[in-house]
Amino acid sequence: MKDLIKHFAIANEVAEPQPLKVGHINDSYVVRAVHTGEKSYFLQRINHHIFQNVDGLQRNIEKVTEHIRHKLLAAGEPDVDRKVLRLVPTREGKLYHRTAEGDYWRVYILIEGATSQERVTPRSAELAGEAFGRFQCQLADLPFDALTESIPDFHNMEYRLGQLDDALSADTAGRKASCPDIIEAIDRRRDEMCMAERMFREGTLPKRINHCDTKVNNILFDEAGRPMCIVDLDTVMPGFVLSDFGDFMRTAANTGLEDDPNLDNIHVDLAIFEAYARGYLHEASFLTDVEKQMLPFGCRLLSYMQTVRFFTDWLNGDTYYKIGYPEHNLVRTKSQLRLLEEQEKVADRMSDIIEKLS
Ligand code: GN1
Ligand code: MG
Fold first, then answer.
1. Pocket residue to mutate for ligand 1, from 20, 22, 24, most atoms within 8 A of Cβ
2. pTM listed for this prediction
3. Is 263 helix (H, G, I), strand (E, B) or coil?
């Protein structure tokens, strides 16, 4: 792997890349400086089966990070190199390196002294809400067609249901017959869950630039527990703000795990919901009243979307998400569906909280 590193514009001596277990999609490595005080790096193999337009993807990341960097510098922020990612180009000045085998690699400068969180507290959730709200604000003046959809129709619910329908018709892995309850639960909600796309066509819901993977572990925190930098920029693209709000709640305001085999563990943590909403609404000054009112719906939408996506992958025989054991995608499907049901139970309470905070 040292040969790989040689393609990038890295001036200092570095050690052999060490694998890191993060994410379901790309393969990540940390590349440490040999001499203390010098820069270390974050190396990733981009999953080009999923990100088929690597060129567009890398240009998105370059645009987003440069845009944020300029904003931070203009505001006189200290420590900018720890507040926004920086790509390391190849020696030919490209944003990624393609190997003879057809793999795509990229390198970032490693942000030092960062910690990450897997579980949030109400305090860190509020800070996270501010961080993702700020991120959207920083990108709000970038024309939204300045970015390509690095995965076309990534959070388009109509499109995701179309993929499910294809998987159901093909039934490649022969798993459809054993899941009638899941299919029924998904079908019953189809119409409601495609509301955002309809509203966009009618002109009542705007698209803005979103992160589209707002898990708390995509925020790097500093030594004092303050959010420092938003990472995992692969899916930054135009979409509904519902995506970013909903995906945070899906992952953080859940007392269980995304793949919890024990469904009784799964409830909505309204204290986390309220704290994140407070932080987010504090920063996201650009929201329309309709967007605000739809935030609780956004939570349900993202749980539903993830149910559909995990279930589609289960039906297709596990071709998309990395799995830890054979039934993993089915377990994930059921736990996301339970989360959706739990969110439906407290939908009115969520709306009351949003109204109170607005
Ligand atoms: C994938 O790999 P990771 O954890 O960053 C997926 C997200 C899903 C998530 C489910 C490109 O994200 O959309 O919400 O798994 N990313 C892609 O945990 O599909
Ligand atoms: Mg991700």
1. 24
2. 0.94
3. helix
Say whether both 203 and 333 belong to one domain. Answer: yes
At position 239, the amino acid (one-letter code) is G
Query: For residue 239, what pLDDT is reported?
Result: 94
Give the CA angle between residues 317, 190, 173 to the nearest 5°.
15
What pLDDT shows up at residue 323?
Answer: 94
State CA 187 to chain mean position distance: 25
Total domain count, the chain: 2
> Which domain, by its residues, includes 290?
122-357
Between the CA of 22 and the centroid of ligand 2 the distance, in Å, is: 9
Distance from residue 202's CA to the centre of ligand 2 (Å): 30
Ligand 1 atom closest to the Cα of residue 218 is: 5
Q: How far apart are CA 163 and CA 83, in angstroms?
A: 37
117 is a domain residue? no
Ligand 1 cavity residues, CB under 6 Å: 23-25, 50, 213, 232, 234-235, 258, 306
- Per-residue pLDDT of 8-47, as tens digits, reads 999 999 999 999 987 778 999 999 999 999 999 999 999 9
* CA 132 – CA 242 distance, rounded (Å): 12
* Confidence category of residue 86, pLDDT binned at 50, 70, 90: very high
Same domain, 132 and 89: no
Q: Which residue has the tokens 């639960």?
A: 185
Q: 229, exposed or middle or buried, with CB in 10 Å at 0-12, 13-18, 19+? A: buried
Residue 1: its pLDDT value, please?
Answer: 81
CATH number (domain holding residue 98)? 3.30.200.20
| Number of alpha carbons in the 13 Å side-chain half-sphere of residue 314 | 23
